[in-house]
Specification:
Length: 286
């Protein structure tokens, strides 16, 4: 099924349902967001607006109206609040149609059950479900580049032979989330790093991961805090170095993109913040 609003026969659609206005004759508008696009439909059964979450389920839709039955009417909704909504993110949300398909493949190929579920939970947040795909960097004409860079970087991390399997799995998740804070409007994180804002928003999912996989949760938190940490665990620094280097290279930067380490009695993995911030300024000024 494509993204058009006209249907010619009854269908069942798995997706996220977003209720809208109620017309004068009592019909309520509903956007049905499914894997292939967005279907505009109507229902007689009014759907309350969800506060802070997504409404997911299977909608049974039939064509109605005269003379050609061109109005999609939702006859019944089987609500499925535990639906893995990553599967129904519309491919039309992203600037490039294959971006979301590649993202879904990355998530489905994660062997680690905790990291897989973390991404499922995080992208069930309305802001990331809707707006991650059009998030932009600071420069003009970069709408959609955040998601495109993240997916491309994660694909390269997935096939990195110089990382262990643990590092690759955590690296894929970090690559997808390192700029995800940009999905929120700038006023929500202005004056602080957008990665910290994102970390704050996904903290419940991180806590759930920590219950079964404390090492993975701690490593991911360190990575998300990379712009404001003085040191990293030895297992964390290689992941950060690889993800940062590949992301910079993908966006057209050449030359070395290394984390500079200095000796310290407190840690053998100390990151100089001036070098880290210089790399960020280089990216922002490009």
């Amino acid at each position: 099924m494509n993204k058009q609003s006209v249907i010619l026969h009854p269908i069942s659609v798995d997706g996220v349902l977003e209720p809208g206005i109620i017309s004068g004759d009592g019909l309520q508008a509903v956007r049905v967001m499914h894997a292939d696009g967005v279907l505009a439909a109507w229902t007689w059964d009014h759907i309350p607006v969800s506060l802070g979450g997504l409404l997911s389920g299977t909608a049974n839709i039939r064509p109605a109206g005269f003379p050609h039955g061109s109005v999609p009417i939702i006859e019944h909704i089987q609500w499925e609040p535990t639906m893995q909504v990553i599967d129904v993110i519309p491919t039309t949300f992203a600037r490039k149609r294959d971006t979301i398909s590649r993202f879904k493949r990355l998530v489905n190929r994660l062997f680690h059950p905790g990291l897989n579920q973390l991404l499922q939970d995080v992208f069930a947040m309305p802001t990331l479900f809707h707006d991650y795909w059009t998030a932009a960097y600071d420069e003009a004409d970069s709408i959609g580049e955040v998601a495109e860079t993240a997916v491309a970087t994660a694909e390269l991390i997935e096939h990195s032979l110089d990382l262990y399997s643990f590092e690759r799995e955590v690296g894929v998740v970090f690559a997808l989330l390192r700029e995800a804070g940009r999905a929120w409007p700038r006023q929500y994180w202005q004056g602080r790093y957008h990665t910290l804002h994102c970390l704050d928003k996904i903290q419940c999912s991180i806590n759930t991961l920590r219950e079964q996989f404390p090492a993975e949760a701690s490593t991911l938190v360190e990575l998300m805090q990379h712009e404001c940490r003085l040191s990293f665990d030895p297992a964390t620094a290689p992941i950060l170095e690889r993800v940062e280097a590949l992301a910079l290279a993908y966006r057209g930067h050449r030359g070395e993109a290394k984390i500079v380490q200095v000796d310290s009695p407190a840690s053998d993995k100390v990151i100089r913040l001036d070098w880290a911030r210089a790399r960020r300024r280089q990216l922002a000024d490009s």
